[in-house]
Amino acid sequence: MKTDWKGVFPAVTTQLSEDQSLDLDATARHIEVLIESGVSGLVLLGSLGENQALEPEEKRRVMEAAVRTVGGRVPVLSGVAENSSAVACRYARDMERLGADGLMLLPAMVYKGDARETLAHFRAVARASGLPIIVYNNPLSYGSDITPEMFAELADEETLVAIKESSGDVRRITDLINTVGDRYVIFGGVDDLILESVLLGAQGWIAGVGLAFPRENQHLWDLATSGQWERAREIYRWYTPLLHLDIGAKFVQKIKLAVQECGLGSEWVRAPRLPLTGPEREETLAIIRRGLETRPAVPAQTT
């Protein structure tokens, strides 16, 4: 199965009201801003989308609204982060019926399987629908490392078309290419390693902080992928303190706070997460506001 997936695919937040209910209108408004910035696709209901904190029917409502808002302008993918293979397969089939263009598949949550079990889970979901899938590898957060050798074993599953590489070790990109060649499209999944990831062969970026700074985010990508390294480094050096917000246990709160400070949404999160308070909030705001004060001039639109 071939796709034309490449470029920036932001991991869109699920916008909430102060009472923690879904704010689908706010999510739709944010999607419009992201599309206007030039993104190549959108991933709803990933980690930043607070997938695991949402009820099953809420996830489906989010995806219905996203598919309706986008109207085919860019691919719309849904994260799949379920506790069992059976539920993940059911969710994949539901996303196909709702009109999603693809999936981003995480390992099964709660139980951390060994390599044999992890491979079986991915194979089951790969065969549950006809949708193309990005496999999300984030061993630091989810406890399961999908190694290059495991991706070689999965290469016969046609619906597995891409990898979101978030191991935190950019050497993994070269190891993947050396092991599986161009079998999968590789997406960088760690914001503050993206320039290095592009240099080593990543063709896409599942972006986080770009939700708050979409124009600058897209401009950096365009510079890097067109070989304009000197200017790309300049933008990256400005951007890196902000990109560090994508790291750590409270990355959702920090990025949602950045989205709010940039006037593109609100910081409300679903419990057990709570908005930042105290020195942690002030430190995060200082980084965001410094970024806003010093943000570089970029084109109004990029292609």
Summarize the SSE layout with pairings.
Layout (H helix, E strand, L loop, with lengths): L6 E2 L15 H14 L4 E3 L11 H15 L5 E5 L4 H14 L3 E4 L9 H12 L6 E5 L1 H4 L5 H6 L6 E6 L5 H10 L4 E4 L5 H7 L3 E2 L8 H12 L3 H15 L7 H11 L16 H16 L10
Parallel strand pairs: 1-8, 2-3, 3-4, 4-5, 5-6, 6-7, 7-8
Helix pairs in contact: 1-2, 3-4, 9-10, 11-12
Protein name: 1-pyrroline-4-hydroxy-2-carboxylate deaminase
Family: Belongs to the DapA family.
GO molecular function, one term: 4-hydroxy-tetrahydrodipicolinate synthase activity
* Strands, total number: 8
Radius of gyration (Å): 18 Å
**Could you give me the name of the CATH homologous superfamily?**
Aldolase class I
Quaternary: single chain
Show unreliable segments: none
Separation, N- and C-terminal Cα atoms: 26 Å
Number of folding domains? Answer: 1
Helicity, as a percent range: 40-55%
Strand content: 5-15%
- Name given to the CATH architecture: Alpha-Beta Barrel
Strand order of the largest sheet: 1-8-7-6-5-4-3-2
Q: Main sheet, how many strands, which sense, barrel?
A: 8 strands, parallel
Organism: uncultured Armatimonadetes bacterium
Binding site for pyruvate: 206
EC number: 3.5.4.22
Active site: 136, 164
Report on the structure:
The chain is of the alpha/beta class and 303 residues long. The chain has a single domain (7-228), classed as Aldolase class I (TIM Barrel, Alpha-Beta Barrel). Helices cover 45% and strands 10% of the residues. The protein has helices spanning 24-37, 56-70, 85-98, 115-126, 139-142, 148-153, 171-180, 194-200, 214-225, 229-243, 251-261, 278-293, and strands spanning 7-8, 42-44, 76-80, 102-105, 133-137, 160-165, 185-188, 204-205. An eight-stranded parallel β-sheet has the order 1-8-7-6-5-4-3-2. Helix 11 crosses helix 12. The longest helix has 16 residues, at 278-293. It is globular. The mean pLDDT is 96. One of its GO terms (molecular function) is 1-pyrroline-4-hydroxy-2-carboxylate deaminase activity.
